[in-house]
Amino acid sequence: MPTEIAENLHRILERMAAAAARAGRKPDEITLIGVSKTYPANAIEQAFQAGIRHFGENRVQEWEGKRGVIADLPATWHLIGHLQSNKAGKAARLFHSVDSVDDLALAHRLDRARAEMNVSDQLRILVEVHMGEETKSGVAEAELPRLAAQLLELPHLRFAGLMVIPPYFDDPEDVRPYFAKLRELRDELQTKTGHRLPVLSMGMSHDFEAAIAEGATEVRVGTALFGSRTVLP
Ligand SMILES: *Cc1c(COP(=O)(O)O)cnc(C)c1O
After folding, report:
1. Residue spans per domain, the chain
2. Distance of CA 110 to the CA centre of its chain
3. pTM, two decimal places
4. DSSP at 219
5. Residue 221 Cα to ligand 1 middle (Å)
6. pLDDT of 102-145, one tens digit each?
7. Residues with beta carbon inside 6 Å of ligand 1?
8. 156 C-alpha to center of ligand 1: Å?
9. Are 137 and 82 in contact (CB under 8 A)?
């Protein structure tokens, strides 16, 4: 008997593949991140059994509290929520990637914490770009080139691309310009810095198909995979 999570996963992967095909892209260019915030460790384990290998959590403390035995699963753990700088050290140890970097001082802290760990692999980071009025998080467009140049100097971080949480629209087609904008910003940054920035983390349960149409390489899907959240994130 496949679990409900496995069935949900199956449907999501089909929709991702169809969206990729419509955009003339290959399905394996797009990574599904299961957003497990508010869900218990056993839901994460089920999703892992079903085949998911990337998970996103939005709070350091919540993840620290529930990771227990599942921390040893060979999965990639992403921090996708706003990170306070006093938790940077913990985040650098508990996650493989911080997808929501929005500040140079924070990046410095992550870099130092990673250095102290004496591990050879860099911490992957994405920069969250601010778009729309509703959300406060993220870096303003105008600050991106300067921040990008500075991030590329930090030896223990690997700046890999951009992330966005656009405003909500009932019709996912309406959010496409925001996704297109993130891609354009990424393209400009690549030109300016001369570095490849392959990752575009964009699209959630409600709009991941639109994001794939605009070039998403990572989609962050919570409720469509795990069911609706009973606790507010
Ligand atoms: C919660 C969350 C998601 C997933 O949202 P769903 O609508 O449940 O798919 C994606 N990205 C971020 C940053 C989130 O906080």
Report:
1. 4-225
2. 17
3. 0.96
4. E
5. 6
6. 999 999 999 999 999 988 899 999 999 999 877 788 999 999 99
7. 35, 37, 58, 80-81, 165, 204-206, 220-224, 233
8. 27
9. yes
